[in-house]
Amino acid sequence: SHTLSELEGMERSPKQRELFRKFSDQLISQRLKSRNEPSAGPAIVVMRGKCSLVNCEISDCTGGGALVCNPSNQIMELQLHISGCTIRNCVKAGVESREFGNLLVENSEIHDNHQGAIIWRDAQNVKISNCNIYNNKNEG
Predict the structure, then answer these.
(1) pTM of the model
(2) Distance, CA of 110 to chain centre
(3) Residue 71, pLDDT score
């Protein structure tokens, strides 16, 4: 198994070079397509492990801002911690927790998204505190 940059430097036959070029073009095309489709996925997805977003901005996403889920239902204290952030102008939800996702959002601004925050019934241990959530098109 090699990274894309390692593959670029390898000696290849003309047929391998052509296949590599087509593969690279396809990856670039998929990335550009996902940027222009309103159905793109969230900018940040946490399904395992832990992630902290501190003093940052998530904006102008063609999908959602941040999604946390834990489909394996492993016991976790906290998966996603968002603090001092601004999440704005997302085509879908600013933040979302589902499938046993553990979420803490504090001291943040969530605005001008399709939905501010979506917390599904199967989410687990969700706390949103001291946040300004406003000017979203639908719930949250």
Answers:
(1) 0.70
(2) 15
(3) 81
Cβ atoms within 10 Å of 132's Cβ, excluding its own: 12
For the chain, give the DSSP string. ---HHHHHHS---HHHHHHHHHHHHHHHHHHHHHHH-TT---SEEESSS-EEEES-EEES-SS-SEEEE-TT----S-SEEEES-EEE--SSEEEEEETT--EEEES-EEESSSEEEEE-TT--SEEEES-EEE--SS--
CA gyration radius, the chain: 19
**Cα–Cα dist 80/139, whole Å:** 21
Bridge partner list, 128:
105
27-36, 42-51, 86-95, 119-128: the lowest-pLDDT one: 27-36
Asked whether the beta carbons of 70 and 101 are under 8 A apart, the reply is yes
Please tell me the distance from the alpha carbon of residue 81 to that of residue 55, in angstroms, as a whole number. 11
Q: Over the chain, what is the mean pLDDT?
A: 81
* CB half-sphere exposure, 111, CA atoms < 13 A: 9
